[in-house]
Each structure stands twice: as C-alpha cells, then as structure tokens.
Amino acid sequence: MLLQETLVREGLARVAYVKEPNTKYLLELEEAQEKAKNESLGIWSIPGYVTERGFK
After folding, report:
1. Which of the residues 1, 4, 34, 42 has the least number of beta carbons within 10 Å of its own beta carbon?
2. Nearest-angstrom CA–CA distance, 56 and 53
3. How far apart (Å, rounded) are the C-alpha atoms in residues 16 and 8?
4. What is the largest CA-CA distance in the chain?
5. What is the pTM of this model?
6. pLDDT on residue 52
7. Cα 32 from chain centre
8. Could you read off the pLDDT tens digit of each residue along the chain, which spans 56 residues?
9. Cα 40–41–46 angle (5° rounding)?
10. Which residues contact 51 (CB under 8 A, 6 or more apart)?
11. How many CB atoms are located within 10 Å of the residue 47 CB?
C-alpha cells in the first residue's frame, strides 16, 4: 500500500493536483477518499473544511 493511499484512507489528506502522466494509482486513491468521506474520517469530519481549492 502506498503512503499516500494510507493518508487518504485515514482522512488525513485528499486527492488533488493529479496531472498526466501521474495517474497510475488515481482510481485507488479516489476509492480510498470516497471511503473516508463516507465514514467522516479526519478532514472529512469537519463540515466545510475541505473545499475544491484546498482547506479552510
């Protein structure tokens, strides 16, 4: 498992700034992020904290 995936899965980071050709693990990271969001883990537990432009 990637360190990035662990951070996203635990709600300590979000998927952002992904550019071609660095998309090899994008699907796994997005799935981990969705799981963290659904479980309101970490940054996802604070209403309005995560925005499209980063964090408040």
Report:
1. 1
2. 9
3. 11
4. 33
5. 0.87
6. 79
7. 7
8. 799 999 999 999 999 989 999 999 999 999 999 999 999 999 999 999 988 777 76
9. 65
10. none
11. 7
